Each structure stands twice: as C-alpha cells, then as structure tokens.
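HOLO CASE FILE
Compound: guanosine-5'-diphosphate-alpha-D-mannose
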Amino acid sequence: MISIVVPTYQEFENLPPLCEMIQTALADFIAAESLGYEILIMDDNSQDGSIKKVQELANTYPIRLINRTQNRGLSPAVIDGFSEARGDYVVVMDADLSHPATAIPEMIRQLKTGESDFVLGSRYVEGGSIDDSWTLWRYINSVVATLPALPLTKVKDPMSGFFAVRKADIPSANELSPIGYKIALEVMVKGPFKKVSEVPIHFVDRIHGESKLTFTEQLKYLRHLRRLYQYKFKTKAEFFQFAAVGSSGVIVDMTFYLLLQIFGVSHTLARAISFWPAVSWNWMLNRLITFSHREKTAKTTQWGAFVFSSLLGFSVNYGTYYTLTTFVPFFQEHIILAFIIGILMGMGFNFSISNLFVFRKLREEVDSESKRRHSK
Ligand code: GDD
Ligand code: MN
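Model generated. Tokens follow.
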C-alpha cells in the first residue's frame, strides 16, 4: 500500500483536482503491481469547507482527513501523517497541484526495486523544470536558499517538498524536529538512507488559494539549517564554531590590551587584565552559539569553569611557546610560528575541556549517541 500524505491548510478548491490527478496517475501502476493507496489529508482545522469536501470525496476516492487542532504547521502535520500512514511506502506532496502525481509510480518503483531509499521530486535535475511564470527574482531566491543546504545532502533540489520513502525508514517522531518548512530535508538528513535519488518534475504554480510560506517561515529555515549542521557534523560543527568564537575573542583581547596601554597601564598588567573580558566574551558566545543546545547550567558556575579551563589552556599555550622558543633552534628564529602553534595548542585543549566538562551534554543527547553506537 502507498500512503500519500498531504499537509493542507485551506485548500478546499484544490482537493477534488488533487484526488483526480492522483487517481489518474496511479491507476495503471497500482493495478499492475497490485498495490493499494490512501490519501491522508493532514489538515489544520481549515474553516473553508475542507472537512465536508473530503467527506464527499471519500465516496469516490480512498481519502481520509485528519483534523489537527494542536501543534499547527506544515512539518508537524507531515510528521503526524507518518504515524497515521498504513502503507509500506509513504509519499509526501503538496495539495496545491504544484507536485505532479505522474512522478509517483517511478518514485515507488525505485523504492520497490531497491534502486533508491529516498526519492525526491526535483526541479533541478535534467528533465525537471519550474513554472514559466517564475521571475528571475524568485529563481535567485530559490537558488540562494538552496546553497547553504548543499553540504547536508547530495541532491540538487533540497528545498523540494515532494518525496517518497519506505515507511520503515522514517525516523521516529521524537527524532524529527518540526521546525520550519523543509521536512524533506529533515527526513533526508536524519534517516538511514544510503541511496538517495531524484526524479525530474515540472513544478506548477498554484492556481487556487495562496502560499502559506511567510517571511517568519524563511527565518526559521536558518535555525533549521543550523540544527541540521549540528546534527550531521556534530563535534566538527562545534569545533568550527568554537574556533570562530575564539578568533573573535582574540580581537577583544587585543583591543583591551592596546586600549589599557593607551590609558597608561603597563603592558604586563594590560596583558593580565585583557584576558578577563576576552574569556568572558568567549564564554558568552559559546553559551549562545557553539553549545546552545547543551544543558543550561547556572551562569556563574559555568563562567567559573570556563575561566578555569581557559587558564589551563593559556598555560598550555604559554608552555608550548616557552618550550619551543627555548629549546628548539628553528623556533628561536621563527618565534611567530611558535606563537601561532601555542595558540592552536591552547585552543585545542580548551575545546576538549569545554566539550567534555563545561558545557555538559543533555541526557537525551548522551542516550541517543550511545544507542546509535550500539546499533552499528
Ligand atoms: N497542515 C498544514 N499546516 N498544512 C500547511 C501549512 C500548515 O500550517 N502551511 C502550508 N501547508 C500546506 C499547504 O496547504 C500546501 O498543501 C503545502 O503545505 C505547501 O504549502 P504552500 O503554501 O503551497 O508552500 P509553497 O508552495 O510556498 O512551498 C512549497 O514548495 C517549496 C518549493 O518551492 C513546499 O512544498 C515547500 O516545502 C517547498 O520548499
Ligand atoms: Mn505551493
């Protein structure tokens, strides 16, 4: 059985042509493969007559409406649809006729033969296209939004909302984050998919009703991306952010060091004082950015721990510098290299300490990591 999950909000005019399009596209295929199908309308309590419309359509088509009154939104609606689905294969598509149902047989065929584990309806592979009415501006927008998602997947159209997977491969609801509009990307990154493929589609602009994609949704997309990076690259993403924060801290350090001297403070004392604003700056940004997903321990305790570990890092830095410039002739000639190596050593040390002890992992994070390790 194929379950077609369709998130809807005020799509009542599109429901009849949607059913007709699906029925026509699937008729031969499901007969040949002796498969059944169901259409799951995941509606957020639309008051436009959608409920009645689905009741009418249910006389002709295998359609079900799930009326949602809590936790509204496109992604949560789709995630609920996953648990409602009775089929072995799950297709997600928009209701507004943008996604051609004619692509579904090929999507299911690839899943069935094992040619693919995740099939995406794509506008940007050969044979795919976008609506003629698209302005250059809209196209540029789409491309700009697509670029930062590319390191997460290998597909050409990671923004697409049209995809098919085996039900068994869908991550459980509590593993999926319902933030934002890009549920295909979410599933693709978090699911166990070895082979991901794209089938070309011609994306048609909606005729009835209007798009619900607001500016706020687009901002959520940035948050969503950051989480997916965090998820996929884990410690690598953290280390990168930690390094970026650290570099900005060097600037803070430098600024205070120089300013204090302008005000007549001796350079040794300035060096000792400037460590404090810099280390506090780093701690604050790491709390807000690098380790924002970690447990929120009390600020003063955490700051103390961070300062303490930074002092250790600083001694590693200084120790490295001192050792190299005192005992290694090469570095006696290239003290600036020793200086850089010292900073890097101190930074690596700081990161390990912060990562292990200062910004403690959340319980669930530790659990899911060990679970993943066991399942390998
Ligand atoms: N249940 C529910 N709740 N459904 C929603 C909601 C919501 O809050 N918001 C939107 N939908 C439904 C719409 O009714 C429609 O069936 C589908 O989700 C897509 O919404 P549109 O408003 O038509 O989105 P779009 O055309 O701007 O975006 C689509 O195309 C993009 C690529 O251009 C989506 O498929 C995006 O995921 C995709 O990135
Ligand atoms: Mn649309």
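CASE NOTES: The beta strands are 2-8, 37-43, 63-67, 89-92, 118-122, 163-166, 196-200. The first strand starts at residue 2 and ends at 8.
CLOSED: yes
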